[in-house]
Amino acid sequence: MKILNSNSGFYLTEVQETFSDAETLVQIFKDYVFPKNLRSCLDMCSISQRTLNDERIVLSPVPRIEQGVFFLCDSNDTKVGSISFTFSDHGSSSTSYITKVKAVIKKSERGRGCFTEMFTLISWFFNQFLQADLAQISIVNTAPQVSKKLDERTVETLNQRDAPESTVPFDSVSDRKVKVADYSGSFTSEEWAPFSLLINDVTVAIPDKGIGKF
Question: How many other C-beta atoms are found inside a 10 Å radius of the C-beta of residue 184?
């Protein structure tokens, strides 16, 4: 699976349940606010491969994704970052949610526009492909670039709260809610045009809105 920005050559691709991918995740997440060990990364790879894979992504609507994990790759196929998330209905019959979003760019790759690439790629996937109704995102105050990107769009701030523990490397958390209709309207059709989801270089059609019941 490849979620491609044809203008830049950057793309997202799902992790596989391998030691190699788990070790790569460890290296990417070691500079995250909460570093991950090999055991947790293996678990992430295992869950992701079960619920985010080529066979399920072509279903219409796309089924629940318990924990999807993508690598961000540049045009040279270098894995420069990662993002994880969940996609479900939380028991609702009418609303789908993106939650538990964790995004990080590898420290050695920062400062060359990788986060902007990840932001637009995952925005297209969440908003245009999965057509999620709401996204719930929490942003720590040590990630101002994330707040800036969301502030440029129609995103509601729910509250600003203090860090949960004195030992964490940030002081406060901003809780945001993204409404699909408003968020979609903040992009132009030209901005969305370069993006597509491909399997073996074949474009996958946009699925029906909703979440499959398995």
Answer: 16
DSSP per-residue string spanning 125-182: IIIIIS--SEEEEEEETT-HHHHHHHHTS-EEEEEEEE-SSTTSS-SEEEEEEEEHHH
Beta bridge partners, 138, equal 175
Residue pLDDT, tens place only, 188-198: 889 899 999 99
197 Cβ contact list (under 8 Å, min separation 6):
1, 2, 3, 4, 57, 125, 129, 203, 204
Q: Which tokens in the block code for residue 147?
A: 């707040």
Domain of residue 24, residue span:
2-131+188-203
How many C-beta atoms lie closer than 10 Å to residue 15's C-beta?
Answer: 25
In a domain, 193, yes or no: yes
Averaged over 174-183, what is the pLDDT? Answer: 77
Contact 45, 69 (CB under 8 A): yes
d(Cα 131, Cα 194) in Å, to the nearest integer?
17
**Per the structure, how many domains does the chain have?**
1
pTM beyond 0.70: the answer is yes
Query: Domain with 113 in it: what CATH number?
Result: 3.40.630.30
User: Tens digit of pLDDT for each residue in 2-61?
Assistant: 999 999 999 999 999 999 999 999 999 887 767 788 999 999 999 999 999 999 999 999
